[in-house]
Prior knowledge:
Layout: H1 5-14, E1 22-25, H2 31-36, E2 43-47, E3 58-59, E4 70-73, H3 76-86, E5 90-92, E6 101-102, E7 106-110, E8 116-125, E9 130-136, H4 143-149, E10 154-159, H5 167-176, H6 182-200, E11 203-213, E12 219-221, E13 225-228, H7 237-240, H8 250-257, E14 261-264, E15 269-273, H9 276-288, E16 295-298, H10 305-316, E17 323-330, H11 335-349, E18 355-361, H12 364-372, E19 379-381, H13 384-396
Parallel strand pairs: 15-17, 17-18, 18-19
Antiparallel strand pairs: 1-7, 2-4, 2-7, 3-5, 5-6, 8-9, 8-11, 9-10, 11-12, 11-13, 14-16
Amino acid sequence: MNIHEYQAKQLLKSYGCPVSNGRVVLKAEEAKTAAGELDGPLWVVKAQIHAGGRGKGHFKEPEAGPKGGVRLAKSVEEAAELARQMLGRTLITHQTGPAGKQVNRVYIEEGSDIARELYLALLIDRKTSRVSFVVSTEGGMDIEEVAAHTPEKILSFSVDPATGLSDFHGRRVAFALGLQGGQVKQCVALIRNLYKAFIEKDMEMLEINPLIVTPEGNIKVLDAKLGFDNNALYRHPDIQDLRDTTEEDPKELEASRFDLNYIALDGEIGCMVNGAGLAMATMDIIKLYGSNPANFLDVGGGATREKVTEAFKIITSDPNVKGILVNIFGGIMRCDIIAEGIIAAVKEVGLKVPLVVRLEGTNVALGKEIIANSGLNVIAADDLGDAAQKIVKAVKG
Length: 397
Protein backbone atom coordinates (compact mmCIF):
# COMPACT_ATOMS: atom_id res chain seq x y z
CA MET A 1 0.00 0.00 0.00
CA ASN A 2 1.23 3.48 -0.87
CA ILE A 3 0.40 6.80 0.77
CA HIS A 4 0.65 10.44 -0.27
CA GLU A 5 3.71 12.61 0.26
CA TYR A 6 2.07 14.75 2.95
CA GLN A 7 1.05 11.63 4.87
CA ALA A 8 4.57 10.22 4.56
CA LYS A 9 6.06 13.43 5.94
CA GLN A 10 3.64 13.50 8.86
CA LEU A 11 4.60 9.93 9.71
CA LEU A 12 8.34 10.61 9.42
CA LYS A 13 7.96 13.76 11.51
CA SER A 14 6.43 11.66 14.29
CA TYR A 15 9.69 9.69 14.28
CA GLY A 16 11.79 12.84 14.69
CA CYS A 17 12.78 13.34 11.05
CA PRO A 18 13.26 16.95 9.83
CA VAL A 19 10.54 17.97 7.37
CA SER A 20 9.15 21.29 6.18
CA ASN A 21 5.92 22.75 7.53
CA GLY A 22 2.98 22.27 5.18
CA ARG A 23 -0.80 22.05 4.77
CA VAL A 24 -2.93 19.70 2.68
CA VAL A 25 -5.73 21.23 0.60
CA LEU A 26 -8.77 19.27 -0.60
CA LYS A 27 -10.91 22.19 -1.81
CA ALA A 28 -9.78 25.21 -3.83
CA GLU A 29 -11.47 27.66 -1.46
CA GLU A 30 -9.28 26.37 1.39
CA ALA A 31 -6.01 27.03 -0.42
CA LYS A 32 -5.52 30.70 0.50
CA THR A 33 -6.13 30.07 4.20
CA ALA A 34 -3.76 27.10 4.17
CA ALA A 35 -1.00 29.05 2.41
CA GLY A 36 -1.49 31.98 4.79
CA GLU A 37 -0.69 29.73 7.74
CA LEU A 38 2.81 29.14 6.37
CA ASP A 39 5.81 31.44 6.41
CA GLY A 40 7.12 32.81 3.10
CA PRO A 41 8.67 34.27 1.11
CA LEU A 42 8.44 31.08 -0.98
CA TRP A 43 5.72 28.45 -1.13
CA VAL A 44 5.80 25.08 -2.92
CA VAL A 45 2.54 23.72 -4.34
CA LYS A 46 2.58 19.95 -4.95
CA ALA A 47 -0.05 17.76 -6.59
CA GLN A 48 -0.67 14.66 -4.48
CA ILE A 49 -0.92 11.47 -6.55
CA HIS A 50 0.58 8.01 -6.13
CA ALA A 51 3.17 8.43 -8.88
CA GLY A 52 6.64 9.86 -9.30
CA GLY A 53 7.85 12.45 -11.79
CA ARG A 54 5.24 15.03 -10.77
CA GLY A 55 7.52 17.99 -11.35
CA LYS A 56 8.22 16.93 -14.93
CA GLY A 57 4.62 15.93 -15.62
CA HIS A 58 1.92 17.86 -17.46
CA PHE A 59 -1.81 18.24 -17.12
CA LYS A 60 -4.12 16.55 -19.58
CA GLU A 61 -6.56 19.44 -19.75
CA PRO A 62 -5.29 22.18 -22.09
CA GLU A 63 -6.85 24.91 -19.95
CA ALA A 64 -4.85 23.87 -16.88
CA GLY A 65 -2.50 26.68 -15.98
CA PRO A 66 0.57 25.07 -14.37
CA LYS A 67 2.78 22.92 -16.57
CA GLY A 68 3.88 20.57 -13.82
CA GLY A 69 2.68 18.99 -10.62
CA VAL A 70 5.25 20.80 -8.46
CA ARG A 71 5.27 24.60 -8.70
CA LEU A 72 6.81 27.52 -6.81
CA ALA A 73 4.82 30.54 -5.64
CA LYS A 74 6.07 33.88 -4.33
CA SER A 75 2.88 34.94 -2.58
CA VAL A 76 -0.07 33.45 -0.72
CA GLU A 77 -2.36 34.49 -3.58
CA GLU A 78 -0.17 32.80 -6.20
CA ALA A 79 0.02 29.61 -4.14
CA ALA A 80 -3.77 29.55 -3.80
CA GLU A 81 -4.20 30.10 -7.55
CA LEU A 82 -1.80 27.27 -8.41
CA ALA A 83 -3.67 24.95 -6.03
CA ARG A 84 -6.97 25.91 -7.67
CA GLN A 85 -5.56 25.18 -11.13
CA MET A 86 -4.28 21.73 -10.07
CA LEU A 87 -7.28 20.40 -8.16
CA GLY A 88 -9.56 18.25 -10.26
CA ARG A 89 -7.13 18.13 -13.19
CA THR A 90 -5.50 15.00 -14.59
CA LEU A 91 -1.73 14.90 -14.14
CA ILE A 92 0.30 12.75 -16.53
CA THR A 93 3.80 11.61 -15.58
CA HIS A 94 6.15 8.89 -16.83
CA GLN A 95 4.77 6.64 -14.06
CA THR A 96 1.04 7.24 -14.55
CA GLY A 97 0.96 6.32 -18.23
CA PRO A 98 -1.06 8.31 -20.78
CA ALA A 99 -4.28 8.04 -18.75
CA GLY A 100 -2.78 10.05 -15.89
CA LYS A 101 -4.23 10.47 -12.40
CA GLN A 102 -6.74 13.01 -11.17
CA VAL A 103 -5.42 15.42 -8.55
CA ASN A 104 -7.79 15.39 -5.58
CA ARG A 105 -5.33 16.78 -3.03
CA VAL A 106 -2.67 19.47 -3.10
CA TYR A 107 0.09 19.99 -0.56
CA ILE A 108 1.29 23.54 0.09
CA GLU A 109 4.65 23.64 1.83
CA GLU A 110 7.09 26.26 3.02
CA GLY A 111 9.92 26.76 0.53
CA SER A 112 13.45 25.61 1.38
CA ASP A 113 16.82 26.98 0.34
CA ILE A 114 18.92 24.19 -1.16
CA ALA A 115 22.69 23.90 -1.18
CA ARG A 116 22.84 20.20 -2.16
CA GLU A 117 20.38 17.49 -3.24
CA LEU A 118 20.99 13.89 -2.18
CA TYR A 119 19.23 10.54 -2.54
CA LEU A 120 18.40 8.10 0.28
CA ALA A 121 16.23 5.00 0.34
CA LEU A 122 15.52 1.94 2.48
CA LEU A 123 14.29 -1.16 0.66
CA ILE A 124 13.69 -4.85 1.24
CA ASP A 125 16.47 -6.77 -0.52
CA ARG A 126 14.80 -9.99 -1.66
CA LYS A 127 18.13 -11.68 -2.36
CA THR A 128 19.49 -11.27 1.16
CA SER A 129 16.16 -10.99 3.04
CA ARG A 130 17.52 -7.87 4.70
CA VAL A 131 16.83 -4.16 4.83
CA SER A 132 19.13 -2.35 2.42
CA PHE A 133 20.17 1.29 2.22
CA VAL A 134 20.63 2.91 -1.19
CA VAL A 135 22.32 6.32 -1.19
CA SER A 136 23.63 8.66 -3.85
CA THR A 137 24.98 12.17 -4.17
CA GLU A 138 22.76 12.60 -7.26
CA GLY A 139 19.55 13.63 -5.52
CA GLY A 140 16.64 15.15 -7.41
CA MET A 141 17.17 12.77 -10.35
CA ASP A 142 15.48 9.48 -11.19
CA ILE A 143 17.60 6.85 -9.48
CA GLU A 144 17.10 4.60 -12.54
CA GLU A 145 18.89 7.20 -14.67
CA VAL A 146 21.75 7.41 -12.18
CA ALA A 147 22.04 3.60 -12.10
CA ALA A 148 22.11 3.45 -15.90
CA HIS A 149 24.66 6.20 -16.55
CA THR A 150 26.72 6.69 -13.37
CA PRO A 151 26.31 3.56 -11.21
CA GLU A 152 29.53 4.37 -9.36
CA LYS A 153 27.64 7.22 -7.66
CA ILE A 154 25.31 4.78 -5.88
CA LEU A 155 26.21 3.01 -2.63
CA SER A 156 24.11 0.09 -1.43
CA PHE A 157 24.55 -2.01 1.71
CA SER A 158 22.30 -4.11 3.95
CA VAL A 159 21.83 -4.33 7.70
CA ASP A 160 22.43 -7.68 9.40
CA PRO A 161 19.25 -8.37 11.43
CA ALA A 162 21.29 -10.33 13.98
CA THR A 163 23.24 -7.25 15.05
CA GLY A 164 20.77 -4.59 13.94
CA LEU A 165 21.45 -0.97 13.06
CA SER A 166 24.35 0.87 14.64
CA ASP A 167 25.75 4.40 14.38
CA PHE A 168 28.35 2.96 12.02
CA HIS A 169 25.66 2.61 9.36
CA GLY A 170 24.68 6.25 9.77
CA ARG A 171 28.29 7.38 9.46
CA ARG A 172 28.74 5.21 6.39
CA VAL A 173 25.79 6.97 4.75
CA ALA A 174 27.10 10.39 5.80
CA PHE A 175 30.56 9.79 4.36
CA ALA A 176 29.10 8.36 1.12
CA LEU A 177 27.04 11.54 0.74
CA GLY A 178 30.00 13.81 1.46
CA LEU A 179 28.54 15.24 4.66
CA GLN A 180 30.87 16.98 7.07
CA GLY A 181 31.02 18.28 10.63
CA GLY A 182 27.69 18.52 12.38
CA GLN A 183 25.95 17.11 9.33
CA VAL A 184 27.38 13.67 10.16
CA LYS A 185 25.70 13.71 13.57
CA GLN A 186 22.42 14.80 11.95
CA CYS A 187 22.70 12.00 9.41
CA VAL A 188 23.34 9.35 12.07
CA ALA A 189 20.21 10.47 13.96
CA LEU A 190 18.16 10.54 10.73
CA ILE A 191 19.25 7.03 9.71
CA ARG A 192 18.38 5.72 13.16
CA ASN A 193 14.90 7.27 13.01
CA LEU A 194 14.22 6.13 9.45
CA TYR A 195 15.26 2.55 10.21
CA LYS A 196 13.05 2.50 13.31
CA ALA A 197 10.06 3.74 11.30
CA PHE A 198 10.76 1.25 8.51
CA ILE A 199 10.82 -1.74 10.87
CA GLU A 200 8.02 -0.72 13.21
CA LYS A 201 5.58 0.12 10.40
CA ASP A 202 6.41 -2.90 8.20
CA MET A 203 7.44 -0.82 5.21
CA GLU A 204 8.60 -2.23 1.88
CA MET A 205 10.08 1.04 0.62
CA LEU A 206 11.12 4.37 2.08
CA GLU A 207 12.49 6.79 -0.52
CA ILE A 208 13.67 10.34 0.09
CA ASN A 209 14.44 12.18 -3.12
CA PRO A 210 15.76 14.65 -2.54
CA LEU A 211 17.28 14.74 0.89
CA ILE A 212 18.67 18.27 0.97
CA VAL A 213 21.42 20.18 2.72
CA THR A 214 20.44 23.78 3.43
CA PRO A 215 22.89 26.71 3.12
CA GLU A 216 23.04 26.70 6.93
CA GLY A 217 24.35 23.13 6.83
CA ASN A 218 21.23 21.31 8.04
CA ILE A 219 19.75 18.23 6.36
CA LYS A 220 16.04 17.99 5.61
CA VAL A 221 13.59 15.55 4.05
CA LEU A 222 12.26 17.50 1.06
CA ASP A 223 10.23 14.69 -0.55
CA ALA A 224 9.22 11.25 0.71
CA LYS A 225 7.58 8.16 -0.72
CA LEU A 226 6.52 5.26 1.51
CA GLY A 227 5.20 1.80 0.63
CA PHE A 228 3.89 -0.77 3.12
CA ASP A 229 3.61 -4.55 3.17
CA ASN A 230 -0.06 -5.34 2.52
CA ASN A 231 0.26 -8.60 4.44
CA ALA A 232 1.17 -6.70 7.62
CA LEU A 233 -1.47 -3.96 7.46
CA TYR A 234 -3.67 -5.78 9.98
CA ARG A 235 -1.08 -4.78 12.58
CA HIS A 236 -1.29 -1.09 11.65
CA PRO A 237 -4.84 0.32 11.64
CA ASP A 238 -3.32 3.82 11.70
CA ILE A 239 -1.64 3.12 8.35
CA GLN A 240 -4.76 1.54 6.90
CA ASP A 241 -6.61 4.77 7.70
CA LEU A 242 -4.24 6.60 5.32
CA ARG A 243 -5.35 4.54 2.32
CA ASP A 244 -6.69 6.59 -0.59
CA THR A 245 -8.85 4.24 -2.63
CA THR A 246 -9.30 6.86 -5.38
CA GLU A 247 -5.65 6.23 -6.29
CA GLU A 248 -6.20 2.50 -6.85
CA ASP A 249 -7.50 0.60 -9.85
CA PRO A 250 -11.23 -0.08 -9.20
CA LYS A 251 -10.82 -3.69 -10.36
CA GLU A 252 -7.90 -4.28 -7.98
CA LEU A 253 -9.87 -2.66 -5.16
CA GLU A 254 -12.87 -4.91 -5.83
CA ALA A 255 -10.61 -7.97 -5.98
CA SER A 256 -9.11 -7.16 -2.57
CA ARG A 257 -12.62 -7.25 -1.06
CA PHE A 258 -12.88 -10.93 -2.05
CA ASP A 259 -9.28 -11.81 -1.14
CA LEU A 260 -8.29 -12.23 -4.79
CA ASN A 261 -4.74 -11.57 -5.93
CA TYR A 262 -5.37 -9.34 -8.94
CA ILE A 263 -3.14 -6.92 -10.83
CA ALA A 264 -4.40 -5.11 -13.91
CA LEU A 265 -2.16 -5.13 -17.01
CA ASP A 266 -2.52 -3.61 -20.47
CA GLY A 267 -3.02 -6.76 -22.57
CA GLU A 268 -6.10 -8.28 -24.20
CA ILE A 269 -6.46 -11.78 -22.72
CA GLY A 270 -7.97 -12.04 -19.26
CA CYS A 271 -6.55 -14.80 -17.06
CA MET A 272 -8.09 -16.70 -14.14
CA VAL A 273 -5.64 -19.14 -12.58
CA ASN A 274 -5.11 -20.81 -9.21
CA GLY A 275 -1.60 -20.39 -7.85
CA ALA A 276 0.86 -17.57 -8.41
CA GLY A 277 3.44 -19.72 -10.20
CA LEU A 278 0.88 -21.18 -12.59
CA ALA A 279 -0.50 -17.67 -13.17
CA MET A 280 2.97 -16.43 -14.15
CA ALA A 281 3.47 -19.41 -16.47
CA THR A 282 0.07 -18.74 -18.06
CA MET A 283 0.99 -15.12 -18.70
CA ASP A 284 4.33 -16.16 -20.20
CA ILE A 285 2.83 -18.68 -22.60
CA ILE A 286 0.19 -16.20 -23.78
CA LYS A 287 3.06 -13.87 -24.63
CA LEU A 288 4.93 -16.73 -26.31
CA TYR A 289 2.04 -17.39 -28.68
CA GLY A 290 1.73 -13.76 -29.75
CA SER A 291 -0.62 -11.92 -27.39
CA ASN A 292 -0.52 -10.16 -24.01
CA PRO A 293 -2.23 -10.87 -20.68
CA ALA A 294 -4.76 -8.31 -19.44
CA ASN A 295 -4.23 -9.21 -15.82
CA PHE A 296 -2.61 -11.38 -13.20
CA LEU A 297 -5.34 -13.15 -11.21
CA ASP A 298 -4.72 -15.88 -8.66
CA VAL A 299 -7.96 -17.14 -7.11
CA GLY A 300 -6.03 -19.14 -4.53
CA GLY A 301 -6.01 -22.79 -3.61
CA GLY A 302 -9.30 -22.92 -1.72
CA ALA A 303 -11.58 -20.61 -3.69
CA THR A 304 -15.34 -20.97 -3.34
CA ARG A 305 -17.89 -20.83 -6.13
CA GLU A 306 -18.74 -17.26 -5.09
CA LYS A 307 -15.09 -16.25 -5.21
CA VAL A 308 -14.66 -17.69 -8.70
CA THR A 309 -17.80 -15.87 -9.83
CA GLU A 310 -16.50 -12.53 -8.56
CA ALA A 311 -13.12 -13.15 -10.22
CA PHE A 312 -14.84 -13.77 -13.55
CA LYS A 313 -16.93 -10.61 -13.15
CA ILE A 314 -13.81 -8.53 -12.48
CA ILE A 315 -12.11 -9.87 -15.61
CA THR A 316 -15.12 -9.17 -17.82
CA SER A 317 -15.43 -5.62 -16.45
CA ASP A 318 -12.16 -4.72 -18.19
CA PRO A 319 -13.06 -3.21 -21.60
CA ASN A 320 -9.64 -4.20 -22.98
CA VAL A 321 -10.31 -7.93 -22.54
CA LYS A 322 -10.99 -9.61 -25.89
CA GLY A 323 -10.73 -13.18 -24.67
CA ILE A 324 -10.53 -15.14 -21.40
CA LEU A 325 -8.34 -18.08 -20.44
CA VAL A 326 -9.22 -20.11 -17.36
CA ASN A 327 -6.34 -22.37 -16.34
CA ILE A 328 -6.94 -24.49 -13.24
CA PHE A 329 -4.80 -27.26 -11.80
CA GLY A 330 -6.96 -28.79 -9.09
CA GLY A 331 -5.06 -29.81 -6.01
CA ILE A 332 -6.82 -28.29 -3.03
CA MET A 333 -9.04 -26.52 -5.57
CA ARG A 334 -11.69 -28.80 -7.12
CA CYS A 335 -12.33 -28.50 -10.84
CA ASP A 336 -16.09 -28.92 -10.40
CA ILE A 337 -16.18 -25.85 -8.11
CA ILE A 338 -14.39 -23.84 -10.78
CA ALA A 339 -16.81 -25.07 -13.43
CA GLU A 340 -19.84 -24.13 -11.33
CA GLY A 341 -18.38 -20.68 -10.65
CA ILE A 342 -17.71 -20.05 -14.33
CA ILE A 343 -21.25 -21.05 -15.31
CA ALA A 344 -22.78 -18.89 -12.58
CA ALA A 345 -20.70 -15.90 -13.65
CA VAL A 346 -21.46 -16.26 -17.34
CA LYS A 347 -25.20 -16.52 -16.63
CA GLU A 348 -24.99 -13.38 -14.47
CA VAL A 349 -22.81 -11.10 -16.61
CA GLY A 350 -23.03 -12.73 -20.03
CA LEU A 351 -20.21 -13.83 -22.32
CA LYS A 352 -19.28 -11.48 -25.14
CA VAL A 353 -15.71 -12.70 -25.78
CA PRO A 354 -14.14 -16.12 -26.47
CA LEU A 355 -13.58 -18.29 -23.40
CA VAL A 356 -11.05 -21.13 -23.23
CA VAL A 357 -11.05 -23.42 -20.19
CA ARG A 358 -8.30 -25.85 -19.25
CA LEU A 359 -8.99 -28.02 -16.21
CA GLU A 360 -6.71 -30.63 -14.66
CA GLY A 361 -6.57 -32.35 -11.30
CA THR A 362 -9.15 -33.10 -8.62
CA ASN A 363 -12.63 -33.88 -10.03
CA VAL A 364 -11.48 -32.89 -13.52
CA ALA A 365 -13.89 -35.27 -15.25
CA LEU A 366 -16.84 -33.86 -13.30
CA GLY A 367 -15.71 -30.29 -14.01
CA LYS A 368 -15.49 -30.93 -17.75
CA GLU A 369 -18.87 -32.64 -17.70
CA ILE A 370 -20.49 -29.65 -15.96
CA ILE A 371 -19.13 -27.25 -18.58
CA ALA A 372 -19.98 -29.55 -21.49
CA ASN A 373 -23.59 -29.82 -20.33
CA SER A 374 -23.97 -26.13 -19.58
CA GLY A 375 -24.85 -25.11 -23.11
CA LEU A 376 -22.24 -22.34 -22.99
CA ASN A 377 -20.00 -21.51 -25.91
CA VAL A 378 -16.79 -22.57 -24.16
CA ILE A 379 -13.66 -23.82 -25.93
CA ALA A 380 -12.14 -26.79 -24.09
CA ALA A 381 -8.37 -27.30 -23.94
CA ASP A 382 -6.32 -30.36 -23.05
CA ASP A 383 -3.17 -28.73 -21.71
CA LEU A 384 -1.65 -25.29 -21.13
CA GLY A 385 -0.01 -25.02 -24.55
CA ASP A 386 -3.21 -26.05 -26.28
CA ALA A 387 -5.21 -23.55 -24.20
CA ALA A 388 -2.86 -20.63 -24.96
CA GLN A 389 -2.85 -21.34 -28.69
CA LYS A 390 -6.64 -21.57 -28.80
CA ILE A 391 -7.33 -18.33 -26.93
CA VAL A 392 -4.73 -16.38 -28.94
CA LYS A 393 -6.19 -17.75 -32.18
CA ALA A 394 -9.72 -16.88 -31.07
CA VAL A 395 -8.70 -13.30 -30.21
CA LYS A 396 -6.47 -12.68 -33.20
CA GLY A 397 -8.70 -14.49 -35.69
